Amino acid sequence: MLNTKYIEYIAVYVSVLFGCVVMAVIVRLSVLALGVDEFTANVIFFATIFLLVIIYSILILVIDGLYNAIAKRILFYRKNTSISAPSPMEVKDFNKIREDSQKAFAEKEQSVKEVAIRYTQKKFAPYTSNEQLDLLCHYIAHYSEGKQLQVTHQISVIKLSNLDIYHFGWNIWNYLKISNQAEIAFFSKVYFMVYSRMLRLKRSSDISKTTSQKESSKFRRIF
Prior knowledge:
This protein folds into two domains: 4-84, no CATH class; 96-222, no CATH class. It contains nine helices and no strands. The chain has helices at 4-33, 38-84, 88-124, 130-144, 162-176, 181-190, 197-201, 207-210, 213-222. The protein starts with a helix and ends with a helix. This is Mobilization protein. Keywords: Membrane, Transmembrane, Transmembrane helix. It comes from Gaoshiqia sediminis.
């Protein structure tokens, strides 16, 4: 069986040819009525058919070209419109993605801060008062947020050496890593009443070398 598309083409071409023949017959009869001989009338008949077929072909080519050009311009315009003017649903989705990302980042920061505060509470609860411990946790929270700290009150501790304070500061820095080691050394020195000659003399590059392995491993287990 022939394809339906081919059948449509055949029907169109047969219809066009039939129309051309009808027009040619009318022209032939007209010239015969004017007294033209049979041979000339037949020549005019076939010439008319040929001319009408040529005219039809030219019209088809012109119309098809115009149609394709107009269709392409319409598609191009619609495509640009859809890109330059996203639907409200797409904008809403982008906002939701942005909000979810910001929320996840904030939750991660909060979780890190809470871990650092719990570590601080566990380490200093036996060696300072509740008020002093709350103040220290307040300082740690500000430090974990990357804020610039201002000394209002120093932390008073008992039964802790300079090295203990030093280990605590390095562990906090190693977990948060929001500043360089020199800043955490300054933090440990300024916020505690226990002043360490080692903290004043040690350079920041020496801190990781002198940190107690036992203290650091305990901190890692807590985290």
